[in-house]
Amino acid sequence: MIYSPSYLAVGVFAFFVLIVLGISFYLGAKAKSASGYYAAHGEIPWFVNGIAFAGDYLSAASFLGICGMIAFYGYDGFLYSIGFLAGWIVALFVVAEPLKRMGKFTFADALDSKFHSKGIKLSAAISTLVVSIFYLIPQMVGAGALIKPLLGLESYQGVILVGVIVILIVVTAGMVSTTWVQFIKGALLVLFCTILTGMILQRGLTSQSAQGNRAIKRITKGELSKIPGSEVLAESGGWKGKPYIRTRDKSTGVLSIWSDRGGETGDVVAEFALGTPLEAMTSVDYVNETQYVTTKNGRKWVNGKPQGKGEGETDFYAVGSIKFLSSSETGEKRDSTGPVGPLGFFQEIQDSVIYTWASEKITEDDGSITIVYFPKATTGKSLLLPGGSPTFADLRKDTLFGK
Amino acid sequence: MKPSPDGPAESPADHVDEHLDLSARNSRTGLWLFAVYLAAYVVFVVMAAYAPGTMGQPTPLGPNVAIVYGFGLIFGAVLLAMVYMFLCKRNADQFDREGGGR
What we know:
- The complex is a heterodimer.
- In chain A, strand 7 and strand 8 (305-306) form a beta hairpin.
- Chain A is α+β, with helices and mostly antiparallel strands.
- Chain A has helices at 7-28, 34-39, 46-57, 60-73, 75-102, 107-115, 118-151, 155-203, 221-225, 342-351, 380-383; strands spanning 218-220, 230-232, 244-249, 255-259, 286-289, 291-296, 299-302, 305-306, 321-324, 353-363, 369-379.
- By secondary structure, chain B is mainly α.
- Chain B has 3 helices and no strands.
- Chain B has helices at 16-50, 52-56, 65-97.
- In chain B, helix 1 (16-50) packs antiparallel against helix 3 (65-97).
- At the A-B interface, helix 2, helix 5 and helix 10 of A face helix 1, helix 2 and helix 3 of B.
């Protein structure tokens, strides 16, 4: 997707960065010893330290990663947040008291004071670095992904920008400034996420029929072949055997890809007169519209046209829609739910059918690569159960090993 | 903790003999609470793997068991942390009454 920078976003970002750097340089003047630099003299108030830990937790992994996983796979994304939390439980109940008894603030110090072994100290240091690197990689990816829509920069520019700022903050004042920065971040995140949640609940859920022509097109194969001015292309090359049908508009040459993946909730499968024998009923097959991007010779084509904002160019449209909400108590179809509470929100999701999107990569004969993003109608019920994601898909089968 | 030049700082480790009993009690409390949470967590995972039907059952609260149990684990963790704080404080009061901390 092409993003254009918003000046308000840039302004807020720059303001925040300046404040944080300012605090960092000010506190940097105060750190006078190694214990001050690396463990903040042990002088950070407990409340600040606690919120700072919460800020660590609310990093790109949770804020972007878990939200993204839930958006794609439903409940399985939620499992990650529980898993992360269980780690904190271990830290509190199992590690905290012995660590305090030894009077040390870090795990490496504690091991060293107990065993006085250079080998243990080295492996503690190495394992800390390894874990940190693995944790940093998704954080930096998240930074790049976040900066892109915010400031309009490329992903790698965002990574460099955030990396430089963070290094500056940490290097100038060590643990003291890092903790205060994390405290500010944690407090801001909790505050704004609460506000966002309130706003989402206030808005309620709206089904796609209320979205006019941005509703996902789902048409029968019969209708597909009858679209004026378009022809159905034969399968060729990388498309053979894949559940897609391609059509091309004869006048503009624009290629459309339709996803042919069988029935969905809400399909009108057949209309027949009473008394029609079973053999005479013809099944009706539907296809969904898709979005796709083709990369050919370094250029990107989205949905058949070059990617861009100019004349004759197009870009991805935003996705995430509800196919239908459940009917109201009187049996009428509803377009929107109105404001809901947190429990009501889950109830509504459970009762509705939602379009989730997945993707598939196809290599064409001429070497270009097409990624097709196709919608699947998923019941809210199945989204709210474990086993929705590819990682945990074996859960829903009955094999013992899979589980 | 007093800020100090590079070198060993005075730390609670210097008083370890006096407070060992209290610390051991706190550790034990912590391990018990950990066991409680671990049990709840294991039940959750086993249910998710072997009783997916139960996970889908609606609860009186509205959302299904999976959601309620999941959020229960999250709020339960906060609750257990507060219980731990309360129990450690009780341990400390008991320790003082028994004449510890000379």
